[in-house]
């Protein structure tokens, strides 16, 4: 009998849950647990691997296994890890197996009247978006793709510093997860040892005098294989490497920290982001400026700002109370706002300025 879409998806989920531990599972065991034939197990496995671009190893005569254990996202687990005040500020947490973009989805829901505090996470994005129209590499089951919808009485123009507040919030969560060297690069990049670990994308809409709504999206590389990252055209890293303390230039010298579970990390991010979204509405950027300075990877360093064909060099002097980047130039201190401005170390060659993304598509 042909499976309906729904039952196929349910069986795929059940199969992934069985394989998630990374152990070896025989075809007979999987068939019994799923209540289907061994031939059907094989078909589901093949379709799952193909559809999700997921590596499932088949050991002849022994069974099947995932090369790396998988912790699927679970909205109930995430919600139960949140503090009471944070839960009180949320209007719902959803986890989708697949979505074009968590940001685009929440912007659509916002237009349809969704209330503030809506959270969307996905196991993968088919059209994940980065800054400046670039794409965001979003393979299944291994990273974090998270968006939160927040409504403000403020005008959209007053939300200029929000991305700075949210960057600080994300860095606080990653530091709490053990990533001691987490850094921020203005306006929206999360860095570890000058390599991109993640990024934020803010979509803002509203009436010119307010109210407004913001969708804050964050993507964090937890485990990205070289194959998945093949199209990324700037130095990148993932949390597994950052916590192991290893890098190409300093191989595995540090003791290393345990990887947090994806649900725990998602909860930690929601916790700090919701608190930042709420604080920003009440107190603006003030509660975040000191932490931004502490996390700023390039503070006091020579940098270049690129605006299309224009290039301005100077020494990075931090961020202004409205979120603008401050640069000490030969002609004095100047302020620059985000948008199409991109920052790079003054010595970096041109290709390094691009946000993490697939060559050609970002
Ligand atoms: C950047 O550094 O260019 C920003 C990347 C933002 C990626 C996240 S993943 C979740 C959310 N949904 C998207 O489509 N983009 C953001």
What does this structure look like?
It contains 10 helices and 14 strands. With 362 residues, it is α+β, with helices and mostly antiparallel strands. Strand 1 and strand 2 form a beta hairpin. Residues 350-362 have low confidence and may be disordered. A 7-stranded mixed β-sheet has the order 3-4-5-9-8-7-6, with helices on both faces. The protein has a 5-stranded antiparallel β-sheet with strand order 13-12-11-10-14. The chain has 3 domains: 8-65, Arc Repressor Mutant, subunit A; 75-295, 2-Layer Sandwich (BirA Bifunctional Protein, domain 2), CATH 3.30.930.10; 302-354, SH3 type barrels, CATH 2.30.30.100. The N and C termini lie far apart (44 Å). Biotin binds at residues 101-103, 125, 128-131, 134, 136, 145-147, 188-189, 199-201, 217-219, 355.
Explain the layout of strands and helices.
Elements: H1 5-19, H2 27-34, H3 38-52, E1 57-59, E2 63-65, H4 75-80, H5 84-89, E3 92-96, H6 102-111, E4 118-122, E5 144-152, H7 162-176, E6 182-185, E7 189-192, E8 195-206, E9 212-220, H8 239-244, H9 262-283, H10 286-295, E10 302-307, E11 310-319, E12 325-329, E13 332-336, E14 342-345
Parallel strand pairs: 3-4
Antiparallel strand pairs: 1-2, 4-5, 5-9, 6-7, 7-8, 8-9, 10-11, 10-14, 11-12, 12-13
Helix pairs in contact: 1-3, 2-3, 7-9, 7-10
The site of biotin has 22 residues, from α6, β5, β8 and β9.
């Amino acid at each position: 009998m042909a499976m309906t879409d729904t039952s196929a998806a349910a069986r795929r989920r059940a199969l992934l849950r069985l394989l998630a531990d990374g152990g070896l599972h025989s075809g007979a065991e999987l068939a019994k647990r799923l209540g289907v034939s061994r031939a059907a197990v094989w078909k589901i496995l093949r379709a799952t691997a193909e559809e999700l671009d997921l590596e499932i190893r088949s050991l002849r005569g022994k069974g099947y296994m995932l090369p790396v254990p998988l912790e699927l996202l679970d909205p109930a687990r995430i919600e139960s890890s949140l503090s009471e005040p944070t839960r009180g500020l949320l209007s719902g947490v959803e986890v989708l197996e697949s979505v074009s973009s968590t940001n685009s989805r929440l912007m659509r829901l916002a237009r349809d009247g969704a209330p503030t505090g809506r959270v969307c996470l996905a196991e993968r994005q088919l059209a994940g978006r980065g800054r400046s129209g670039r794409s965001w590499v979003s393979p299944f089951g291994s990273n974090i793709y998270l968006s939160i919808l927040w409504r403000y009485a403020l005008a959209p123009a007053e939300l200029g510093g929000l991305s700075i507040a949210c960057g600080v919030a994300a860095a606080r969560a990653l530091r709490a997860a053990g990533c001691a060297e987490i850094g921020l690069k203005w306006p929206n990049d999360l860095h570890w040892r000058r390599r991109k670990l993640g990024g934020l994308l803010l979509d803002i809409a509203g009436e010119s005098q307010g109210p407004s709504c913001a969708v804050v999206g964050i993507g964090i590389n937890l485990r990205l294989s070289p194959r998945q990252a093949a199209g990324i055209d700037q130095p990148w890293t993932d949390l597994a490497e950052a916590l192991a303390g290893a890098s190409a230039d300093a191989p595995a010298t540090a003791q290393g920290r345990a990887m947090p579970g994806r649900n725990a990390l998602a909860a930690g991010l929601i916790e700090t982001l919701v608190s930042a979204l709420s604080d920003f509405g009440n107190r603006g950027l003030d509660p975040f400026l000191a932490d931004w300075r502490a996390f700023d990877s390039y503070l006091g360093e020579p940098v270049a700002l690129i605006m299309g064909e224009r290039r301005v060099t100077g020494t990075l002097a931090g961020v202004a109370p409205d979120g603008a980047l401050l640069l000490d130039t030969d002609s004095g201190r100047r302020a620059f706002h985000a948008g199409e401005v991109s920052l790079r170390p003054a010595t970096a060659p041109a290709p390094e300025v691009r946000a993490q993304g697939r060559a050609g598509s970002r």
